[in-house]
Queue: 2 jobs
Job 1
Amino acid sequence: MLLLMIEREMPIDIVLTADTGMEFPEMYQHLDRLDEFLFHERGIHLTTLRHPQGFEWLMFYEPKQKQTSIEQRQKLGISLQGNGWPGARVRWCTGQLKTHLMSKEINRLKGEFHAIHYIGIAADEPKRIREEHYPLVDWGITEKDALQICYDRGYDWGGLYEIYHRCSCWCCPLQKIGELRKLRHHHPELWMRLRELDKRALEQFGNSALGQFKKGWTVEQLEQRFAAEDLQISVFDLLNKPIHP
Ligand code: SF4
C-alpha cells in the first residue's frame, strides 16, 4: 500500500509500524530498506512504536496488579509476575505490543491534526475492514497481488514469504506445527532462542496454561519430534540410495 501511495503521489505525513521485538531478522532488514526508500521519496522516516519494556518483560516480569488475578494465581501457586505464553484466548502480546500502541498514537494524530488513517488490508481480507481508509480494498488488490507488487519493485523480504505463510513473530505459539518445523530448519538460531524461552516459561509457570507453549506440546517435545522425523528421512534416503557396483 505504501509503495503504491508513493507512486500515486498521495499525501503521506507519517508511516507507523509497531515492533514486537520478535520479528524475523529479514523483516528488520526489509524495514530498513523501506525506510531508506521512504526517506528518499518523501523525506520522512518510518515511525516505529515499541512497548518500553518489550515482549520478554511482559512474558516473564510484568507484575500483576489486579487483585482478582493475584488471588487466582496465588490459589494456583503461579508466579505473580509475567503473562507467560500468549494463547488464543489471551493474546496479551497483540494488545500490548501492537494494537494499544497504534490506537493511542492514531487517536492522538486524529485529534491533533484530523489525520486520515490508511490501513494496508487487502481486498480479500473483508473481515478486517472497519471504519478507516483501505486503499488496497478500493483498488481491488488482493494479498497475492500485493505481494507480487512488492516483488516487482525488488522487495522480497529475503525470501521469507517463500518459506512461511505468515511472517509475524517467530516465537508465536499460535502458529501451526508445520511453520515451527520450518523455523527449526530455516532459522536454527531462532529455534534455539525459542527452546530457551520455553524452558524459562516452564520453570516459571510450570504446567499451567501460562507455561504451555502449544496444547500437548512443549518446544522440547517438538524438537524431539522434528529430530526423529529428520532421522527417518535420512534412513529412508540411505535405504533408497542407488547401489553402484
Ligand atoms: S504474532 Fe503471535 S506472538 Fe506475535 S503479537 Fe501476534 S499473537 Fe502475539
Job 2
Amino acid sequence: MKATSTLLLLLVSLAHAGIAQQAVRFEDFFIDSTLRIDYYHTGDAREEVLVVDRMLRQGPWAGNPRNPLDSFGYGHYYVKVYDLSSEALLYSRGYDAYFDEYRTTEPARRGVKKTFHESVLVPCPKKPVRVVIEARDAKNQFHTIFTHQIDPSDYHVMAAPPDPRDRIFVVLDSGVPHDKLDLVFVAEGYTAEEADTFKADLEKYREILLTLEPYKSRERQINISGIFRPSAQSGVTQPREGISMNTVLSSSFNALDTDRYLLTEDNRSLRDIASAVPYDVLCIIVNSTRYGGGGLYNDYTIFTAHNAFSQTVFLHEFGHGFAGLGDEYYTGDVSYVDFYPRNVEPLEPNLTALLDPSRLKWKDLITPGTPIPTEWGKAEYDSLQKAMGALGRKRHELVASLEKQGTSRDSVAAVKKEMDGQLKVMRQRVSDILTDGPQKGSVGVFEGAGYTMQGLYRPAVNCLMFSNEQKAFCKVCERAVARMIGHFAGESQ
Ligand SMILES: [Zn+2]
C-alpha cells in the first residue's frame, strides 16, 4: 500500500507546549523515498559533537506511514524531523550508537577522543525541514546535540548510485515495505566464490528467526532480503590473533577491547551496500566460525554464521538491534564502567531498577502470587560462578606448571579430567538453578541484570537475553519484540 494512495490521518504532537494536536497527513510532508544523513560523531566521556558528512536520497521509504513517530522511548539518541513553518513533529526514531558504548570505557573517561561514522534514515521531505538529533544525559534527559535545516531540492542531496557488484536475494516476500518489518542481511567476509555459502546462510538464519516466537506467528508481517557484495578475502579481522582480513565492511573482533565483541566501524560502506533495498533493520552475517557478535538498537546487528552458538548469538543480538532489549546477564567480561547509572530506570523494556514497584514496566505480566523482588537462588548461583572462575584459573595454572616440569602426558590428562569433572558438576547445578528452580517460567522481578549484580532486575530467571543456552524469550521480551514488529506493520501502539 503506497502512502500516496491512502488517506493517512496522523496525530502529530506540536513542539510548542500548549498548542493542541493537529492532524497531519504523511503524504502532505513526505515523498516515498529515503533521505540518509551521514555524519561523524566525535567525543569522549564528557563531550560529543556531530558533523555532517553527506546526504543521500535512496530507494522507497521502508517505514510505516501510519506510525511515523517512535513512542517506545528506547535508545540514547533520537532523530526528529520538524516542519519549518508549523514546528510540527513529523517523524522520530530512537537509536543507539557505537559512540555511546565507547564513552563508557576507561579511555573515554580519561579524555581520549574517538570518531565514528553514523547514519540516520528519515522519510524524504517535500519541503525544507529541520532535522534534530537529541542525546540523553546520565539521567536519561534529552539534550539537542545537532540541528540541521535540510532543503530536499538542494543539489548536495545526491541520489545514492547502485553498485554493479551487489546481488540481491529476496528470501521472504510478505508484501509492500510500508506495511512490513523489512529486514536486510548484508554479507561480510564471503569471497566471490562463496556466494552460494552466503545464500545458504541467509536461508538458514531466515528459518532460525521464523521458528522463534513472536517472529514465528508474525511471519506475514516480515520481509527478508540479503545483499551480497564479495570480499577480497574470506573471514574476519581478529586483532589479538594478528589476523587482518580485507573484507567489504572491515568488521573486527575485540571491539572496545572485548574478546568476543564483533563490530564494524565502516558505517559508510555498510549503508552504501544496504541502500540497494528498502530496510527498517540491518543485520550483518560474518563468514567465520569464531564465537561472537554485537547488536546496537536501530543501528545494526552482527554475528558470525558458523559457530556452534551462532543461532542463539544471532537471536540474542537481534533482540538488542531490533527491539531495544537489554542484556539480562550480569557476569562476564564486558568493558563498560557503570553502563547503567545508579538510581536511574533503564530505558530497555526488560530491565528495571525497581525504583517504584507500583510503576513496574511488566506489572501486568507478573505471574500471580510471585513476590517482588523474587528469590531465585541468586546467592548459590553467584557463589558457583565465583568458584567456577577460580577453579578454571587454577586448572590453567596447574596444567601449565606441570607441563613446564615435564610431567608425563598421562598424569597431566588425569589432573585435567579430575578438575573438569568438578567443573561439570558445578555447571550442572547452575543449569538446574536456571532451568529447574521453583520460579522457572514465572514472570517476576529477579535481581542481577544489565552487567550489574545488585540493584538491577530482570523479568525471568532465564531468557535468551540472559543465557546463550536458552532458546526462547521470556514473556516480557517476547511482548516487546511483538510490539516492535507491530510498529512496522502499522499497528497502533
Ligand atoms: Zn527476557
